Amino acid sequence: MFSYSTVDCVQFVGDLILSKSTTNVIALWKPDLSTSKTTANCFAPTKCNDTFLHLADYDCNSCDVWYVRFGKNKECNMLAIGNKTGDLRLFHIDTRTYYNFATFNTSSTVRQVSFSPDSSTLIAVCDDSTVWRWLIEYDDQSDSSSSILD
């Protein structure tokens, strides 16, 4: 049985959906888009487990606050999210492996992260109005297509 609270961020990843709630989790779902039963309130599997198949969870420490937005790269194989303690975590969507990418010199919440259109740059914005930028270099494993999307 899954337990998710308020969903505050959602994005398509191919035909799948990523959603972030205030429970320190980003969930990957496969919706049945062919049915008319699919509604905007069906991200809690206890309510509509016949229209969404839960595929995976990505654990996000200290993300149990409202309005922390994740980002994904253009290839839809990398996922980035900040948290309320000033950390930034990157996930490989297919394998669910992650690494702690950065820790900011701030105790401010990282509210949103975004990849550039060509996935070469990652930016993050914090509650203290700082904006951070990194150039991203992908190794062969990270740059390959995700089989979970096939």
Report Rg.
15 Å
Question: Overall 3D geometry?
Answer: globular
Strands across the major sheet, in which order? Answer: 1-2-3-4
CATH class: Mainly Beta
**Unreliable segments of 5+ consecutive residues:** 43-48, 141-150
Rounded mean pLDDT score: 80
CATH topology: Methylamine Dehydrogenase, Chain H
Strand content: 35-45%
Describe the structure.
The chain has 150 residues and is mostly beta strands. It has a single domain (7-143), classed as 7 Propeller (Methylamine Dehydrogenase, Chain H), CATH 2.130.10. The chain is built from two helices and eleven strands; from the N terminus they run E-E-E-H-E-E-E-E-E-E-E-E-H. The chain has helices at 45-48, 140-143; strands at residues 7-13, 16-21, 25-31, 52-59, 71-72, 78-82, 87-92, 98-103, 110-115, 121-126, 131-135. The strands form three sheets. The chain has a four-stranded antiparallel beta sheet, with no helix packed on it. A four-stranded antiparallel beta sheet has the order 5-6-7-8, with no helix packed on it. The chain has a three-stranded antiparallel beta sheet with strand order 9-10-11, with no helix packed on it. Strand 10 (121-126) and strand 11 (131-135) form a beta hairpin. The longest helix is centred in the N-terminal third of the chain and has 4 residues, at 45-48. It is globular and about 45 Å long. The protein starts with 6 loop residues before the first strand and ends in a 7-residue tail after the last helix. Mean pLDDT is 80; it is low at 43-48 and 141-150.
